Amino acid sequence: MIRRPPRSTLSSSSAASDVYKRQVEQHVKLPASETPYIIIPSTYDMGEHGNFTLRIYSDQKVELGPVVGDPDWSAQTLRGEWNLDTAGGNRSHHTWRRNDQYQLWITEPTTILPVLSQSDHDVQYLACFGYYILKAEYKHQRSLQVKPSHLCHTSRFEPSYEVTTKKVLDPLPDGLPYLIVPCTQEPGELAEFELTVHADKPIRVTKAGDEMDWGRLKWADRVCGACAGGAPHQPRWRANKQIMIRVHDDTTLRLYLQQEYDESLPGHLAKIGLVVAKQTAGEHPGAEGAEGEQPDGRSVPYRNLVLLDSTNSCATSTFSSDMEIRLKVSLEASPDPYVIIPYSALIPVSYTHL
Question: Is 237 helix (H, G, I), strand (E, B) or coil?
């Protein structure tokens, strides 16, 4: 039997009296159509069981029958959760890269209907959530940024049980997959979710596992005072802090420099940027530095760079007051380290270098 509310709620003035009636009537005028209409009887709450009878009275001849489904459509379901490690928020936050990513593989033009739903275990709280559909840059690695040319769809973000959309996708060059990235509106919102992808063609949906993640290094510091030397064209650029990185194999680096909003300087975001250059042992004699090794075994210190030109400069980012600056650079294996130089205008700024 259908679970009913207490008798006290079954008054004519109660909203529950409209929900828990024995019979519900609906009058509707439908235009002629070559495709059928769908009627969906349902209970108000999930999990309620019971029998029902549907009666239809019409002024024209109609046919009624069950929906048997389209055998050409398929579906694949994966379950996940936003926890302390994976609740990165939407792409307006630099932490969005922490969200789980799901690869969608297709081989021909395909209509998909992704349905993202969150668990009803905690009905007192629903996270504001949604998802992105992206063109993947790599087959075997996660995407680290959302380029406008790679963004196929942004769902609505709202605190509901379910978010869905319908999208037609064409196969990508080189057999690359699409990515579906479920996320909450703000970082740190915790919830369980279920992603079901319906499609009219064969598809494969897989979660990008830890083996597909990038190696990560992090450096946090503050630019201020004597070490705020400015961009490389400034006369004091050598005063900037220099970070050494060693590359043992040919490597592609993606660097993200994020600045933190300084409440002591309201309304100000520093102009920041990055330079990657090649280091050589013995640079800048007389300065403190790490040590390299000569063929004869003698140690030679690595010094701060004093020269930046076409012979040792590998890559330079844009110089802007954005919250995040990105730089991609390919470095060859080298016995000598490379140097990363974050720089800013003379406004003190805290930065995190990933």
Answer: helix
Helices (H), 102-158: none
Question: Which DSSP letter does residue 350 get?
Answer: E
Tokens of 86: 């994976």
What's this model's pTM, rounded to 2 decimal places?
0.63
Q: How many CB atoms lie within 10 A of CB 118?
A: 23
| Spans in the chain with pLDDT lower than 50 | 1-17, 283-298, 300, 353-354
At residue 347, φ and ψ (nearest 5 deg) are -70, 130
Confidence at residue 130, expressed as pLDDT on a 0 to 100 scale: 94
How far is CA 84 from each of CA 81, 89, 187, 206, rounded to the nearest angstrom?
Answer: 10, 11, 9, 22
How do 204-207 and 102-105 pair as beta strands? antiparallel
CA atoms of 172 and 169, how far apart (whole Å): 9
pLDDT digits (tens, 9 = 90+) for 160-206: 889 999 999 999 999 999 999 999 999 999 889 999 999 999 999 99
CA 155 to each of CA 75, 164, 203: distance values in angstroms, whole numbers, following the listed order: 19, 7, 20
* Cα–Cα distance measured from residue 181 to residue 150, given in angstroms and rounded to the nearest whole number: 13
Q: How far apart are CA 53 and CA 119, in angstroms?
A: 30
Phi, psi of 328 (to 5 degrees): -110, 130
Burial of 127 by CB count in 10 Å (0-12 exposed, 13-18 middle, 19+ buried)? buried
* Separation of CA 269 from chain center: 24
Mean pLDDT rounded to a whole number for the chain: 79
Q: Residue 178: which of 242, 102, 231 has the closest Cα? A: 102
Q: What is the DSSP letter of 307?
A: -
- 116 touches 126 (CB < 8 A): no
Rounded distance between C-alpha atoms, residue 6 and residue 14, angstroms: 12
Phi and psi at residue 340, to the nearest 5°: -105, 125
Buried b (16+ CB within 10 A) or exposed e, 27-45: eeeeeeeeeeeeeeeeeee
Question: Phi and psi dihedrals of 200, rounded to 5?
Answer: -90, 0
> For 19-34, how does the pLDDT look when each residue is reduced to its tens digit (9 = 90+)?
556 788 888 898 988 8
